[in-house]
Specification:
The structure holds two protein chains of two kinds.
Chain A: H1 68-78, H2 82-85, E1 86-92, E2 95-100, H3 105-114, E3 122-130, E4 139-147, E5 152-160, E6 165-167, H4 176-187, E7 190-192, E8 222-224, E9 227-229
Parallel strand pairs in A: 2-5, 6-7
Antiparallel strand pairs in A: 1-2, 3-4, 4-5, 8-9
Chain B: E1 8-12, E2 15-19, H1 25-29, E3 39-44, E4 56-62, E5 65-72, H2 80-84, H3 92-96, H4 104-119, H5 127-155, H6 159-180, E6 189-190, E7 193-194, H7 200-224, H8 228-234, H9 242-248, H10 253-257, H11 264-267, H12 288-311, E8 331-334, E9 337-340, H13 342-351, H14 353-364, E10 372-380, E11 383-391, E12 399-403, H15 405-409, H16 413-417, H17 422-432, H18 436-440
Antiparallel strand pairs in B: 1-2, 3-4, 4-5, 6-7, 8-9, 10-11, 11-12
Classes of the chains: A alpha/beta, B alpha+beta.
Chain lengths: 239, 441
C-alpha cells in the first residue's frame, strides 16, 4: 500500500464508477467528513470512534525486527543493484514488504531464490491490487515468497502504471504462470516474457478487466415483498 | 515424380503434395506414413465424469499416448473476490465459504484469521473459539479426503469406495448441520469468533465419530491397498518429485507424497497447532499410490487432533470480548427457527437505546478495519491456502485474494500426464484433488 503522498498524483479529476467509496481513504486524505458531517466525535455510541491508524506503511526505519534485518542484509549483499531496485521497506503486522522497482522484479526474485542465505524456494502467490486514486502507479503486484529452508515469508511488491509492463517471473518460479495470467486477466497488467499471457478465468473475448476498481460490479435491482432493493454497488455505504 | 495410376505427386517445402484427378484412393493414402498421422486432439470436459467438476483438458493423443495436455479453467468463475469488495467484512464469510465447497471451513478460517490479523486482535480470540475452529477444520479435512478417496476410487474402477466415502462424509456433514444448521457452505466461522456455540449433541456426535471412523479406515485399506487393480492403476503413475513440486508451487499431500514433510500446521503454526500432538505423514514414491497413502494417514492424524481438541474444550465465550467487533446477536431457538433471543430483543427495543444503536450500527454498517495488508496461510486439504487481504480503513474489504491450492496445483497436470497413457491422465489429475469452485472462484 502506498502512503507517501504522490507528488504528481492524487485523486483523479473524475471519480471512477464503482470506486467512489472504496478508494483508500488514507492517501490522499479522505474527502469524507464523517457519516453525518459531524466534526470531531459526534458519535454517542462510541462506535465510530475507532481511531484510524495512520498506516505504519510509509517506510519502516531499521531495525525491522525478527528475521527481517537478516533478509534485508542478505539481499543487499547478494544483489548488486539493491539500492536502485528497492524503493522502500515496510514492516506492518509482522510482515515484511519490499517495494521493488517493477523492471527489477525478476532479478530480485532470482536472487531471492538462489542465494544461499535467502533461499526463497517457493513463490506462494502472485496477485494484484488496484490502488486507483491513491497511487498514480495504480496496480501493485504482490509476490508472496516462502523460504522452506529458513521458514520465512517475504512479500515483494511492484507498482506499475496503467500503460506500464513488468517482467514475468515464470522463468524463475514456474508456478507464477497461471497466477500472472490471472493478474493479467483481472487487471490488464502485462508481464513481458510470459510464455502464454492469455485470459484464464474470463472468456477469451471478454472486454475489460473485472477486478479494476473502475470496472462496475453490475447487478439488477430485486423486488422483495413490494420493496425494491438496489444492486450491491448502488446500495448505501457507510464510510 | 509420377507414379503409376492417376495421381501425381511432388515434393515441396511443406511436404508431399498430391494432385488428385480421380482414381484409386488406396494408392494415394499408401504414400502417407500411418503412424505419424494418427495424432488427434480430444477435448475432455468441461463436462466429464472424471474431471472433478468443470475442468476442460485439451489432449493431444498419439494412439493411447498423451503427447500434450492443456488444462482450460474458468468455467466456474463467479467473481467472489470482486463481490467481497461490495459487502462488509462480516458478510464476506458468506462468500468465501462458497469458493472451495468441499473444504469450506478452511476458506472461512483463512478469511477470519486475515481479518483478525488486520484488526490486530488475533490473540484476543477466545480459547474455545480457536479450539472449535481447529476441530472443525480437521473434521473438514477428513470429509474432503473422503470425497477424494471416493471419487478417485470411482474413477479407477472401485465404485464401492465412492459409496463408502460419501457415507462417512455425510456423518461429518451431520455434525456441521447440528452446529450451524447447514451441511455445506456453513458460514459458521466469523471474524472475532463463531456464529454459534457448539451444542452438546454435536460433541456427542463427534465422540461417536472418533470411535466409528478408525474401523472404516481399516475397511477402506482392506478393500484397496491389497487390490491388484488399484495398485496397478496408482503405483508409478503420475510421478512428480520435490523439485517439480516446488517449481510448480505444488503443496499439500502431493508434495508430501514426494517425501518433503512440509505442513504449515507444523512449519508455520496458526490457531495453536503447535500445542497439538500429531505427525506429518509422507511417502517416498511421489506417485498416485503415495498420495493415497499420505491422505489415509492424514485422516488418522486428523482424528488424533480432533480427540485432543475435544478433551481441551472448556465452556466459555465464543466471541471476542471487544464489543465493537463481536456480533451483537444473542441467538436462541424459537418456534420459527434460530433468531435473536426474546430477552435481547426486549433489551434493545425497550430498555437500552445505546444497545439498539450499537446493534443497528454494527449490523448495517459493520466494523472498520485499520488500513494495511496481510497474507495469511493455512494447511488446506489440498495444500497451502493463502489469503491476501487489503483494507483501506473502511467497513468493506478493499481487496481479498485467495491463493487457492486447486488453482496452483492444476498447473501440474501437463507435467504429470504428458508422455503417459490416456487412462493415467485421470489417475494423475484425480491425485491432485482439484475442486473447481476453489480453482475458479
Amino acid at each position: 500500500m502506498t502512503t507517501n503522498p504522490p507528488s504528481d498524483g492524487g485523486v483523479p479529476a473524475t471519480q471512477p464508477v464503482g470506486a467512489d467509496f472504496d478508494a483508500p481513504a488514507q492517501i490522499p486524505p479522505s474527502p469524507y467528513k464523517g457519516m453525518f458531517g459531524v466534526k470531531g466525535t459526534g458519535d454517542v455510541s462510541g462506535f465510530g470512534g475507532l481511531a484510524r491508524r495512520t498506516p505504519a506503511e510509509a517506510e519502516t526505519p531499521r531495525p525491522f525486527g525478527g528475521y527481517f534485518d537478516e533478509v534485508y542484509d542478505a539481499l543487499e549483499e547478494a544483489y548488486a543493484g539493491f539500492s536502485d531496485a528497492i524503493e522502500r521497506v515496510v514492516v506492518d503486522r509482522g510482515e515484511l514488504t519490499l517495494h521493488v522497482k517493477p523492471e527489477r522484479i525478476a532479478e530480485v526474485c532470482q536472487t531471492m531464490r538462489d542465494d544461499e542465505s535467502l533461499r526463497f524456494e517457493l513463490c506462494s502467490s502472485v496477485d494484484g491490487v488496484d490502488y486507483l486514486g491513491s497511487d498514480p502507479r495504480r496496480f501493485h503486484i504482490s509476490y508472496q515468497l516462502t523460504s522452506m529452508t529458513y521458514r520465512r515469508r517475504v512479500r515483494l511488491e511492484a507498482a506499475v502504471a496503467e500503460d506500464q509492463s513488468l517482467p514475468s517471473v515464470t522463468g524463475i518460479y514456474a508456478t507464477a504462470d497461471w497466477q500472472e495470467r490471472e493478474a493479467y486477466d483481472m487487471f490488464g497488467v502485462v508481464f513481458t516474457g510470459h510464455p502464454n499471457l492469455t485470459r484464464i478465468l474470463m472468456p477469451d473475448d471478454w472486454e475489460g478487466f473485472p477486478q479494476r476498481k473502475d470496472y462496475p460490479l453490475g447487478g439488477v435491482p430485486v423486488e422483495y415483498k413490494g420493496a425494491e432493493i438496489p444492486p450491491p454497488d448502488q446500495r448505501r455505504v457507510y464510510q | 515424380m509420377t507414379t503409376s495410376g492417376y495421381a501425381t505427386e511432388r515434393e515441396t517445402t511443406e511436404g508431399r503434395v498430391f494432385t488428385v484427378t480421380g482414381g484409386d484412393w488406396d494408392s494415394i493414402t499408401a504414400g502417407i506414413d500411418p503412424l505419424s498421422n494418427e495424432k488427434i486432439v480430444v477435448n475432455m470436459g468441461p463436462q466429464h465424469p472424471s474431471t472433478h467438476g468443470v475442468l476442460r483438458l485439451v489432449l493431444e493423443l498419439e494412439g493411447e499416448t498423451v503427447t500434450a495436455v492443456r488444462p482450460v479453467i474458468g468455467y466456474l468463475h463467479t467473481g467472489i473476490e470482486k463481490n467481497l469488495e461490495y459487502r462488509n467484512w462480516t458478510q464476506g464469510v458468506t462468500f468465501v465459504t462458497r469458493m472451495d465447497y468441499l473444504a469450506n471451513m478452511f476458506n472461512e478460517v483463512g478469511y477470519c484469521l486475515a481479518v483478525e490479523k488486520l484488526l490486530g486482535v488475533t490473540d484476543q480470540i477466545t480459547e474455545r473459539a480457536t479450539t472449535i475452529r481447529v476441530m472443525f477444520m480437521e473434521l473438514q479435512r477428513i470429509a474432503s479426503h473422503l470425497v477424494w478417496l471416493g471419487t478417485t476410487g470411482l474413477e479407477l474402477g472401485a465404485i464401492s469406495m465412492m459409496l463408502y466415502g460419501f457415507r462417512e462424509r455425510e456423518y461429518i456433514l451431520d455434525i456441521f448441520e447440528e452446529t450451524s444448521g447447514l451441511r455445506m457452505n456453513n458460514g459458521y466461522i466469523r471474524p472475532g469468533g463463531l456464529s454459534q456455540d457448539l451444542p452438546g449433541s454435536a460433541v456427542r456426535k463427534i465422540r461417536e465419530f472418533l470411535t466409528y471412523m478408525p474401523k472404516k479406515l481399516k475397511e477402506y485399506e482392506a478393500m484397496l491397498s491389497g487390490q491388484v487393480i488399484w495398485q496397478e492403476r496408482t503405483q508409478g503413475v503420475a510421478v512428480l518429485d520435490v523439485t517439480g513440486c516446488l517449481s510448480l508451487g505444488i503443496t499439500g499431500p502431493v508434495l508430501r507424497s514426494a517425501g518433503l514433510a512440509w505442513d504449515l500446521r507444523k512449519t508455520m503454526p496458526y490457531c495453536g497447532y503447535e500445542t497439538y500432538e500429531f505427525d506429518v505423514p509422507t511417502a517416498q514414491t511421489a506417485d498416485v499410490w503415495g498420495r493415497y497413502q499420505v491422505r489415509i494417514a492424514e485422516i488418522r492424524e486428523s482424528l488424533k487432533i480432533i480427540e485432543q481438541a475435544l478433551d481441551r474444550l472448556r465452556p466459555g465465550p465464543i466471541w471476542i470480548s471487544d464489543k465493537k467487533i463481536a456480533w451483537p446477536a444473542q441467538l436462541a431457538l424459537g418456534v420459527d427457527g434460530l433468531g435473536n433471543s426474546l430477552e435481547h430483543v426486549a433489551k434493545i427495543m425497550g430498555q437500552s437505546m445505546e444497545a439498539l444503536i450499537h446493534h443497528f450500527k454494527l449490523v448495517t454498517e459493520g466494523f472498520r478495519v485499520p488500513p494495511g495488508q496481510v497474507y495469511v496461510s493455512l494447511e488446506h486439504p489440498r495444500g497451502e491456502l493463502g489469503v491476501h487481504a487489503v483494507s483501506d480503513g473502511g467497513t468493506h474489504p478493499y481487496r481479498v485474494h485467495y491463493r487457492d491450492p486447486s488453482f496452483v496445483n492444476l498447473q501440474a497436470i501437463p507435467a504429470l500426464a504428458e508422455g503417459a497413457l490416456l487412462a493415467d491422465v485421470i489417475a494423475g489429475g484425480a491425485s491432485l484433488d482439484p475442486v473447481m469452485g476453489g480453482c475458479d472462484r
